[in-house]
Amino acid sequence: MEKKLYICIVVALVCMVTSCSKFLDTVPKDTITNLNYYETEQQLNSALAGVFQTLTKIYAHSFQGVMSLDGDEGFYNRSAQNTGITVNLVTTSENNVTTVWTALYSGIERANLLLANINKPTMSEANRAVIKGEALFLRSYFYFLLVSYWGDVPLLLEPTSSVAQTNNPRTPSKEVYEQIIKDMTEAESLVPDVRQVTNAGHINKSAVRGLLARVCLYMAGDPVKDVSKYEMAKIWAKKVIDDGFHSLNPDYRQVFINMSQDKYDLKESIWEVEFYGYSTDGFNATGKVGIHYGISHGGQDPNHGYSFGYVAITPKLYFSYSKGDLRRDWTISTYTLSSTNPATKTYLPIYPTAMQASQRHVAKWKREYETVYPKEQGGNSVNYPLLRYADVLLMYAEAVASQNGTVPDQDVLDQTVNQVRRRAFGNLLPNRELIDTITISTAGSGYTSAPAVTISGGGGAGGAAVATVATSGTRALTAIYLENRGGNYNSTPTITIGESWMPNVSYTAGKQVYNANKLYTVTTAGTTTSTPPTQTSGASAAATTGAVFTYAGVQAKATITLTNLSDFKGDVKTIGFADYAKFMEFLKAERSRELAFEAMRKRDLVRWGDYYRVMKQIALDFAPLGSRAFGGKAGVNTTERDVLWPIPDAETTVNKAIGQNFGW
């Protein structure tokens, strides 16, 4: 309800801001004025909503399933695509690059107008401070995206006085970063504490502090290399940690289920882009989370919804997860969906080849969990994370390590990386284990549909699996697939396939139950007596068994093997790394495992100075994969210039002072 109310207000306010453009028809074309608009608190909030709208615009498409492909986690899953940003063959007229550039500077202009008029209305000073803080932060965030994707960019801190004011030279990246830090620091003193907000769409102190840590890490890395900023990154990340409010959701999966179900979890997901409704509801506030990034489905089953399946994962990402890491089988699809209603799931091998791994989709946001109907192709209400607490923990560890070029001590690792790792492995207790594999020992026969699979005992919990059945022949089980490895088992749990016959239970016709290793189908509904069916052919007598049970075949059985993680519970030990370089190698991979497809990977690779080398290796990884070799196109096309995007033609045509980035 909170999300619905907030978004409706934002959409209404944006409409108010947009309507102001009508006034421009009454003034000279070379003049921009505030038009006596910022006269009330409501009008300030309307203007602020217009600034927020920039996030909706860029993350609804360009950063979702398109631009965040340009790293080593995923690739555009269309073999015929040979040009454009999805395969890293960009031109100065690339539409997605132009769209983001234009949207960001439009958002900056809106923020500048708001800030220039922030003191006009008579209103509560406390409310004025919050609006100013959010506007300052958003403008800074837009500049952060600009400087990290384009390098030196024009730094405009006042409203544009004339449409003829087009020749704006670029400001060196270091100065842009310094302004970002200055403005974000001021914003941090103005926006409310995280405990005072009710949703992750508005800006809170934790969001500002976490982004300041990110900004400082970027500034410390390539190309600016101001290593003094590692200390600032450490300070800002530690403020979030020491606040005491934030913690990781115990279940990694639930973080993204919450987003799909329009639920907020500010303890973990600190700042999100807000989306609302569906594509034909008239609000135009939808995104594409799960539609672009998702398990391919044509939308025949309305409960699964349409997904283009644009993004497949790289084998590198799949195989980077250690045995027992629960994040892998949530982030990466473990099944395909049929083009039917209802859709059926075909589960994929747990231990795939590189070719098989490259055929899997991103599955972090599964549309089956969405609660807003209809689940349309054009847009949905699922929010997109911009800052999670797990990221803050990893940033702090990186800042501590990089400041002195040493492996963090064990206390720091336990406070940061090991929190993330322990959750990834189901918060495994000492000397406890996870389910590794399920093996069918008896395939059974006579199943009319896939039976339920129950995992119980063993001192642990959470194990879950599903079975598939042959549609012809003996109708035996064809496979059992793990959906959840569970955790904390101290002995092998029991796996039960199907439902046991029970006395004094009312059964409907068609129900299948087992008794004494035999499978029966209820052919006449009724309530059971205390006598179970035991025959090996034909039907039981109603007078004896109550409901009539007809022999169907043999009950299927399976066994479980636990994975031995008693010596590796996800924890990272200081002694496990020979030096700082080895620790950073681990941390770089850990950021990808935890934050995959959250639109940060390329910029991480760039600031570490790894982008060109990593992308060329991706090309080599895909080269031997035959029909899937196209997944390496982005790597093949990568050149040294691709660490930055080109200044769009739309800008260089009118701005003669801006120049162009290297190589473009």
Describe, in plain words, how this protein is organized in 3D.
It is found in: Cell outer membrane. Its main location: membrane. This is RagB/SusD family nutrient uptake outer membrane protein. The protein has 664 residues and is α+β, with helices and mostly antiparallel strands. Helix content is 35%, strand content 14%. The strands form 9 sheets. A 3-stranded antiparallel sheet has the order 15-16-18, with no helix packed on it. A two-stranded antiparallel sheet has the order 1-5. It has a two-stranded antiparallel ribbon with strand order 2-8. Helix 6 runs parallel beside helix 12. It is elongated and about 95 Å long. The relative contact order is 0.12.
* Distance between the amino and carboxyl termini: 48 Å
**Residue share in β-strands:** 5-15%
The class by helix and strand makeup works out as alpha+beta
Strand order of the largest sheet: 15-16-18
Gyration radius over CA:
28 Å
Low-confidence residue ranges? 4-33
Biggest beta-sheet profile: 3 strands, antiparallel
Number of helices: 20
Q: Could you tell me the mean pLDDT?
A: 91
Q: How many strand segments?
A: 19
Shape: elongated
Proportion of residues in helical segments: 25-40%
Give the helices and strands, then pairings.
Blueprint: H1 2-19, H2 41-60, E1 74-76, H3 95-116, H4 125-150, H5 173-190, H6 205-220, H7 229-242, H8 252-260, E2 269-273, E3 297-298, E4 306-307, E5 311-313, H9 315-320, H10 328-331, E6 335-337, E7 345-347, H11 354-357, E8 384-388, H12 389-404, H13 410-415, H14 417-424, E9 434-442, E10 453-456, E11 461-469, E12 477-487, E13 494-497, E14 506-507, E15 512-515, E16 518-524, E17 526-527, H15 542-545, E18 548-554, E19 557-563, H16 580-595, H17 601-607, H18 611-622, H19 633-637, H20 649-652
Antiparallel strand pairs: 1-5, 2-8, 3-4, 6-7, 9-19, 10-13, 11-12, 14-17, 15-16, 16-18
Helix pairs in contact: 1-2, 2-3, 2-4, 3-4, 4-5, 4-6, 5-6, 6-7, 6-12, 7-12, 12-16
